[in-house]
Specification:
Protein-Tyrosine Phosphatase, Chain A, Lyase, Ornithine Decarboxylase, Chain A, domain 1, about 25% strand, alpha/beta, TIM Barrel
């Protein structure tokens, strides 16, 4: 199954797996997991020959399943659907084949909804899928949702049964996606989502995400959106808390309880309250009937290097526990405490406390060698060859004539550059992409929207797929070339390449 953005503010799920009742139900489950639209539609193709579907009971069961899954509208493409039209709701539409459907259907009626296009091996409905996509892009980033769920389960198994789990989906879910990722996580019964900025939380709320969301970097101008969308702000200073209290006194006419998260500085020296702030913080919060502390937390700074900085990690944990204890003892209601991150879950399991925050590990990366071998990659960055050219010896290629051909060459130009996520330092022969499993170097300077490959030694043609990366090792290699970290490589992936979210649908 492939989830992409569609025209008219729709989301499109395309599934051409072999038909069976279980595969259809699995596709419907993926459809109803999408919370970004209230309305859901199913376009179902002619059932394959050989499958015993020529019966009234089969189509009646299909209608019952659609009602159970709350499918709002149905389009059947194939002669058998018209034969059993009496089984369906009066709003259902039927077409003899895809050609008739494409010719006669009013596609402008498909707006603000999630549409499942369920084809099969012989009746794929590929033209319908292509027509409904929002735009077509040669350069794509495929995101493996099965790998996401595998990684989540891997870390869940490390946690105590009572330990809560906050999943960090900031920075476009580390470059992978927004509500598309959050929708999957909601199905897994996690406890919290975390974002960096208020607008990230607003996007999730507008897409129907109802899980509690902590927002880490909140400024005064955000307070109205925080309240309107029931987001939970991180409070990290007395000045910020004073501003929030003043806003609530002035603007919170509903008198709803606002839940906050207190950030404590235990050595990271970024945001957070110092130990000496605790008495004043307690006194101030005890006066506020409209504010409830949902959690107190801090951030480990060296859990990814336990061999060098274990003592500092232990000192951070001890300081946090001391500060958290004072705050918890001051209030009659339970307050969650959390400090551990992805690396901390594996390297310092003794500090799970009430909750842990899982970020980069969810997306397939960990400084822990055992974890890294077990985790699965989510990202496949692909493009296609736009043009192949023959270059004569002595001719130059690209900006600055940075590459001069020392012999006759054959080059391929692909529609991806540094505005998409191919860094300039990957050019000039420093990085190799793959065409049909054969490695070829990026030559000359990487341009904003394209780059050039030396394909002199392989057989390829215009339109062929080019894999920039599809393995963790590729991403680590890119990071090492740029003297940076894997976090930066994936979070800096542009939103210009079309995101395609892939999930299996095997019986």
């Amino acid at each position: 199954m492939r989830l992409t953005s569609g025209k008219n503010n729709c989301s499109i799920i395309y599934d051409d797996a072999r038909f069976s009742p279980p595969s259809l139900e699995k596709a419907m489950d993926f459809l109803i997991a999408q919370r970004q639209h209230i309305k859901r539609s199913l376009i179902l193709s002619q059932i394959e020959e050989g499958y015993l579907v020529e019966s009234h009971s089969f189509y009646s069961a299909l209608c019952s399943l659609m009602k159970l899954k709350k499918i709002d509208s149905f389009i059947g493409i194939g002669a058998s659907f018209q034969q059993y039209a009496s089984c369906f709701d009066s709003s259902a539409r039927f077409y003899v084949n895809e050609e008739e459907f494409l010719k006669e259907f009013d596609f402008s009626s498909l707006t603000n909804q999630t549409i499942l296009i369920k084809g099969n091996e012989h009746f794929q409905l590929l033209q319908t899928y292509n027509l409904l996509q929002e735009y077509h892009q040669q350069t794509t980033i495929e995101v493996d949702l099965d790998a996401l769920l595998f990684n989540l389960d891997y870390f869940k198994q490390k946690l105590k049964p009572e330990t809560k789990l906050m999943l960090m989906v900031k920075a476009f879910s580390y470059g992978s996606g927004s509500f598309e990722i959050a929708n999957m996580l909601c199905e897994e019964k996690v406890d919290y989502l975390g974002v960096a900025y208020t607008h990230e939380g607003v996007v999730l709320r507008n897409a129907g995400i109802e899980l509690p969301i902590m927002v880490m970097n909140v400024v005064e101008e955000d307070f109205k959106d925080i309240i309107a969308h029931q987001l939970e702000p991180e409070i990290y200073s007395l000045r910020q808390l004073d501003q929030f209290i003043a806003f609530l006194h002035k603007e919170n006419s509903s008198n709803n309880i606002c839940e906050i998260h207190l950030k404590l500085d235990t050595g990271m020296k970024r945001l957070g309250f110092e130990y000496q702030d605790i008495p004043q913080l307690i006194s101030l919060l005890k006066l506020q009937k409209g504010i409830r502390i949902q959690s107190v937390f801090s951030h480990f700074s060296t859990t990814d290097e336990p061999e060098h900085h274990a003592d500092f990690t232990h000192s951070q944990a001890a300081r946090f526990q001391e500060m958290a204890k004072e705050l918890k003892n001051a209030f009659a209601y339970p307050i969650i405490s959390h400090i551990s991150n992805s690396a901390g879950i594996s390297n310092f399991p003794e500090y799970q406390m009430d909750m842990v925050r899982l970020g980069i590990g969810l997306f397939g990366f960990s400084p822990n060698e055992t974890d890294q071998k077990a985790l699965r990659n989510l990202f496949s960055f692909k493009s296609r060859i736009s043009q192949i050219r023959n270059i004569k010896k002595g001719e130059s290629i690209g900006y600055g004539r940075a590459y001069i051909a020392e012999e006759d060459k054959r080059i391929a130009i692909i529609a991806a550059g540094y505005a998409d996520g191919i860094y300039r330092y990957m050019g000039n022969g420093n990085y190799k992409v793959r065409i049909a499993q054969q490695e070829v170097p990026i030559i000359a300077r990487v341009c904003m929207d394209m780059c050039m490959l030396d394909v002199s030694k392989i057989s390829c043609q215009e339109g062929d797929e080019v894999v920039v990366f599809d393995r963790q090792a590729d991403i680590v290699n890119i990071a090492e070339l740029g003297r940076t970290i894997d976090y930066e490589v994936i979070t800096n992936l542009s939103d210009r390449p079309l995101r395609v979210f892939v999930k299996s649908n095997n019986d």
